[in-house]
Amino acid sequence: MRDTVDGPAFPVGLERAAELALERKAGEVTGMDLRGISSATDAFLLATGTSDIQVKAIAEHVIDELKKDGARPRHVEGLQEGRWVLIDYFDFVVHVFHTDARAFYQLEVLWGDAPVRHFDDGV
Predict the structure, then answer these.
(1) Which of 55, 56, 65, 80 has the highest CB neighbour count under 10 A?
(2) What CATH number does residue 41 fall under?
(3) Is residue 3 domain-resident?
């Protein structure tokens, strides 16, 4: 059984990104603590949109608002297509999926050992 992350375990920017995704009605907003599992990043934030337009809106809102907080992504992929947008902030990576893409790629299964926090249950 996978652990649940409580408290301040995630980078501050990830928690802010979760709030921003929820502002655009993202579903299944989930943080995954990858410290000790991956050397590429400390955490993932996963969020789901029900249409390509919503996926883009969620991703653009996260990018725009985190820039106002002084955080600029190192890399962004998939924004034009709107099926899976990856936003790399180095310490954490935001993945905004279309429902079908999230089901297909199953990052929660791939990184199944990672402790998780479900933000849509209350940030």
Answers:
(1) 55
(2) 3.30.460.10
(3) no
